[in-house]
Each structure stands twice: as structure tokens, then as C-alpha cells.
Amino acid sequence: MTERPLLSVRNLKKHYPITQGILSRQVGAARAVDGISFDIAEGETLGLVGESGCGKSTAATSIIRLEEPTSGEVIFNGRDSAAVSADATNDVTKFDDAQLKAFRRDAQMIFQDPSSSLDPRMTVGSSVAELLEVHGMSDKQRRRDIVQNLLEDVGLSASDYDRYPHEFSGGQKQRIALARALVLNPDLIVADEPVSALDVSIRAEILSLINDLQEKYGLSMLFISHDMSVVQDVCDRVAVMYLGEIVEIGDTEEIFTNPQHPYTEALLSAVPRPDPRRKRQDIELKGIVPSPTNPPSGCRFHTRCHRVIQPDEWDLEQSEWRSLLNFRDGVVEESLDVETTREMLRTGPADEDVDVADARLRAELREEYDLPETLSDQQAERTLSESLDHLVEGEYGEAQELLAEAFVTPCEQEEPAYADHGGGHRSKCLLTNDQASLQSAPSLKND
Ligand SMILES: Nc1ncnc2c1ncn2[C@@H]1O[C@H](COP(=O)(O)OP(=O)(O)OP(=O)(O)O)[C@@H](O)[C@H]1O
């Protein structure tokens, strides 16, 4: 590897405008990618992982400029790229049409659905050879020879040149897509979920092929996946993305054995381990990634984090604290519908004692949010009970005010900075920000 990375992404943002009305006035923005930075060295594979909606695909298409980034830099130091001249800035975001054409030769993309890059009316050989023609190779026989060799390299046969896409299985089509991506001898491949659409039985074959080709051609790769176990096999380093940001980045081994961000921990807890005795903590990642139009304040992961920080004034079990914040959000954001719950419970006799009915409602609301009958912290319990009384009495506003004031986490008030764990391992969480925040962090009683 050389010292100068092949690709340097700096503070890259892609915000989609949200418009309203006949004049399409912009009323907001979906911050799909919100300031990501990373390098990819020559011959290196970086995995970009996160759940659906985290912004992985938008990051990929913005880097390759299939979409115009909102801001940031994408510095590409192609090995012998015509896009890069001595006086050029190498910033893909500023490339003119000619530079972009050259860059598109040096940086190729593979998609989840291999059919998307194959014309069903063309033989697969012509589909692959077409790129050579577009980029100036006029000798037809030479094009055919190159493509036939390449088809063999990806595990197909030279005679497949004259067959049509519908004659191939999904796995074979992804092999053809790989041949198509490789035919111009690129330096960088951006692979967006290349095996997620394939049968589990053939995923390993394609991953192993990607590994072999990457080594044989000395490629750099940005490998996108929602599946941690897939990146483990293919990537040298891993960047974990959540709601438009990279929350942790480091060597694959380091990320898997010493994760620093709770989101990484949660993603890893879903990965099966070869030795079942070495069990990871079971962390259920509840809910979905919030909308990037209005991301949570402070740390964006705090609304789902199992380690969300508890201020010193409370002494709750960590799981209770998480449930309490979920309950608070349910009330404050009005997603908790007390009257519907009351109706649902009204299966007993119509003349049921009001006190009994109210007690059942309180118990049901606790249960909905995994709140125990009594919280382990007495003061917190008094506040929770009071808020439940308000809800049962129909005093929604009072409950909102009480909960919003009493239960506040530093994670929603302060945006974490990146903490450096050495060897290029960084994470963005208040718990690892500095010793001071570690001291004010909760005792993670359920660890
Ligand atoms: N054209 C668009 N306009 C507005 N919002 C968009 C647009 N494209 C994507 N988004 C939003 O940006 C966020 C990131 O989407 P993106 O597809 O990049 O995520 P992803 O991590 O690749 O997920 P997936 O694996 O499901 O594709 C999502 O909330 C998505 O709804």
C-alpha cells in the first residue's frame, strides 16, 4: 500500500431537498449523508455497514457522482487515470465532463440486482464488450478476446459470450456484472450489497470470487452491506454508518473484537459466532432508523441505544432507563394513544369499578413500554407514577411536561466528538469521548 490513499472522502454530504406546494418551496432536507470522511488505500477493501436507510447507497452514488453531492470532497488519486493531471485537484466533485468520463472508467459500481447493468436484448459478451468500445477500443476481435478471458476469470466459460442474460442464474449474472465492472481495468470498485439478493447457498462463492478478483487485479473496494457477517469475510476495514454519519471505523478485526460504539455492538450481536460458547450479549435493536429529515439531537443513535447515558441524579437499572426514555418519547411525541389502550381493555363488565379500570390501564401502559411494576429508583418511580396518573386522568399536557423535564439524557443534549482508540480506530459516542464523560456515564448494571 502507498501512503497516499486511492480515495479520500472528506465531510461528504448529500441532502435531498423536501419541497412543498405548487411553487415547490423547499421546506426542509433529508440529510441522507451528513458529513462522512474516510480513506481507502490502494488494494484495500473498506466495508460500509448499517441498517436499511442509514445512507449507504446515497454515499456510494455521491462518491461515484451518479448523484451530485451537496458538499464535501472526494479526492481520487487514480493510478494512471486520465482524470488526474498534475494541475488537477483530483476532486471528483469538481470534475468536468471529460474528467468524469475518465473517472467512470477507473471507478466502477456493482449493484445488488445484477440485471440492472445487463441489457436483456444483448448477449452478455456484447454487454461487457460495449464498454471497451465506448472507451475507444475499435478492434472487435480484441474486444471479444478480452471479454472471453474475463468471463473465464469470473468462473464462467468463454462460450457464454454469445448467451443472453435470461439464460443465467442470479449468481451467474452477478459474475457477469463483475466482469463488466472489471473490463476497463478500474482502480476502484464500489459494490452496493452485491450478494444480498442471492441465495444464501451461493453467497459464499461470490464473496470468495470478489476476494480473489480484488487480489488478482489489485483493486480497492468500497463494499456496502447491511450484514456484518458478510463484511467480516471481505473487508480489511469497516465503517459503521448510522443516520447519515459514520459512528465507528477501524480494522475489521478490531471492530469485531473490540467494538466501541453501542450501534456496532448491536449490529454484531446479530452475527452468529462459530463457537456458540463465546456468546455475545444479546442486544435487540428495536424500531427503525429515524427519518433523516429530522434526525434526533445530540447523538443520533440515542433514541435506540441500549447504553444511553443516565444522569447522576437517577439510579436505575439500565434497561429501566431505556424503557423510561421510550415511554417519555411515546408521550411527548404523542405516539402513545391512552384512549385506544383504555378502549382495548374495556372487555370486562360495563359497570367495572373506575379505580380498578384505571389501575389496569396504568399496568397496561407500563407493560407496553417494558416498565416494571415499580422502578428501582424511588424518586423516578414517584415521577413515573405521577405521569401515569395524569395520563389516566386525561391530562396529557401535564404528563408530557413532567416527563420531558424529569427524564433527560446527556446523549440528546450533546453531540459526541470522535474518540481515537489508536490504529485508525475511531468512534463517535459520549461514553468513549473522554474520561470525564466516562465518569458521568451510568453504571451499566445489565452488562
Ligand atoms: N431521492 C431522495 N429523496 C429524499 N430522500 C431520499 C432520497 N433517496 C434516499 N433518501 C433517503 O435517504 C436515506 C438514506 O437512503 P439510502 O438508500 O442511501 O440508505 P441505505 O442505507 O442504502 O438503505 P438501503 O439499503 O435500504 O438502500 C433514507 O432515509 C432515504 O429515504
CATH architecture classification of the largest domain? 3-Layer(aba) Sandwich
SSE string, helix = H, strand = E? EEEHEHEHHHEHEHEEHHHHHHHHEEHH
Strand order of the largest sheet: 5-6-7-3-8-9-11-10
Q: What's the Cα radius of gyration? A: 27 Å
Helix % is 25-40%
Report the uncertain regions.
435-447
Task: Give me the count of strands.
Answer: 11
CATH homologous superfamily assignment of the largest domain? P-loop containing nucleotide triphosphate hydrolases
> Overall mean pLDDT score?
89
Overall geometry comes to elongated
Beta content:
15-25%
Total domain count: 2
Describe the main β-sheet briefly. Answer: 8 strands, mixed
Count of helical stretches: 17
Descriptive notes:
With 447 residues, this protein is α/β, with parallel strands linked by helices. The chain is 39% helix and 16% strand. The protein folds into 2 domains: 7-18 and 26-257, Rossmann fold, CATH 3.40.50.300; 331-406, no CATH class. Residues 435-447 have low confidence and may be disordered. Helix 6 links the parallel strand 6 (188-192) and strand 7 (220-225). Helix 10 (318-332) crosses helix 14 (396-406). The chain has helices at 56-63, 97-106, 124-134, 140-153, 170-182, 200-217, 228-234, 252-257, 262-269, 318-332, 338-345, 354-368, 378-392, 396-406, 410-413, 430-433, 435-440; strands at 7-20, 25-40, 45-49, 71-76, 107-110, 188-192, 220-225, 237-242, 245-251, 419-420, 426-427. The chain binds adenosine-5'-triphosphate (ATP). Adenosine-5'-triphosphate is lined by residues 16, 30, 32, 50, 52-58, 226, 292.
